[in-house]
Amino acid sequence: MPDIKWITNNSLTKPSHQNEFSFAKVNSVQQFHAGFPGYAPTPLVSLTSMAQSLGLGGLYVKDESYRFGLNAFKALGGSYAIGRYLADRLGIDIAEATFEVLTSPATKKKLGEMTFVTATDGNHGRGVAWAAAKLGHKSVVYMPKGSSPERLKNIQREGAEASITALNYDDAVRLAADNAQKHGWIVVQDTAWPGYQEIPLWIMQGYTTMAMEAYQELAAQKVKPTHIFLQAGVGSFAAAIQAFVLNAYPDAPPKVVIVEPHAANCIFRSAEAGDGKPRFVSGDMNTIMAGLACGEPSTIAWGILAAASDMFISCPDWVAARGMRVLGNPLGTDSRIIAGESGAVTAGIVSLLMTCSDLSQAREELKLNSSAQVLVINTEGDTDPDNYRSIVWDGAYSSPV
Ligand SMILES: Cc1ncc(COP(=O)(O)O)c(C=O)c1O
């Protein structure tokens, strides 16, 4: 039996915040991003041969490694949140806060230079640093202990004052909040907690550009997804997509499955506890899925996922490694996808659900069969290139099945 745990949500309800992810709101987020230099929809790759081999009707991968040339989806959140914040400070609507307006001399004169601060495993900080620099502001970024030096360099390259701390992720978030208070900086954190809701909600709304693109790209191929697998750290990314798909496919929303590493499975544990309250994981949370190594669910995200997601899965690191190899070694005429650890775990779990007899009950419960049109999102490319090679070339974290 592979060491994979899953739990079904038997009490689905309408989540709070669903209206914040309406079609109209998500449309306006996409308009905002479309005005940014370098914006282009990321590819939606159809893995036809893989779907056939696994016994699925279709398997689609939205490849966010192409997002703004930053190798991960995260800049969508930081850029929209900073844009919303600046629009508020200017007293204008986000629809008027175009890139040209936000970077104009008049805006600079009115607002001066601000400092945005955040804590990150890598991708979010790189996105905040990139967005702050593009909009003419400063950024400070704190990383948890054990963070990849390559990821640190990528953040510094975007102009941030960035460092690796001796803290775990959740404590690095607290450091960012404390220093913001001391120095008058603005916290742009991708997780909500009691009393800090507005900016994380904007970040979540920012993520929905990728969901709208996927919706448009699938519609162009006349495909309606039946299943979406989403990886979770604090859950903001997954919850944003979850809330949007309820609005995008109101008559028959796709089943949504949330996937986490065992070492940081706070959403899974919260679902397992079954009382609606979030549960925390503490300590170092050692996992190769650095982007998912978060032990405290975002309060907004947990509310949405608890109400609306169909299944929660907790899995070991080798599932992500398998996903990286599966996507990097395509079948037939399928395209090759370079996926990092946090990006690949959902492809890894789909491949296992379809082939591993020990998981047949989960497969049947989800109705994953030849009628299923499955969407996964590759949320990052090879953001840790050394680890990418050791997994894909040398077979590190090999599958025990
Ligand atoms: C590559 C990648 N995928 C997924 C996630 C998960 O996002 P969230 O923390 O909002 O659940 C992250 C978070 O940093 C990430 O970097």
Automatic annotation (TrEMBL):
UniProt KW Lyase keyword: yes
Protein's recorded name: Diaminopropionate ammonia-lyase
Gene: dpaL_1
Enzyme Commission number(s) of this protein: 4.3.1.15
Pfam family, one: PALP
The keyword Cell inner membrane is assigned to this record: no
Molecular function as annotated in GO: diaminopropionate ammonia-lyase activity; pyridoxal phosphate binding
EC top class, as a word: lyase
Domain (Tryptophan synthase beta chain-like PALP): residue spans on this chain: 37-353
Key words of the record: Lyase
InterPro entries reported in the protein's UniProt record: DiNH2opropionate_NH3_lyase, DiNH2propionate_NH3-lyase_sub, TrpB-like_PALP, TrpB-like_PALP_sf
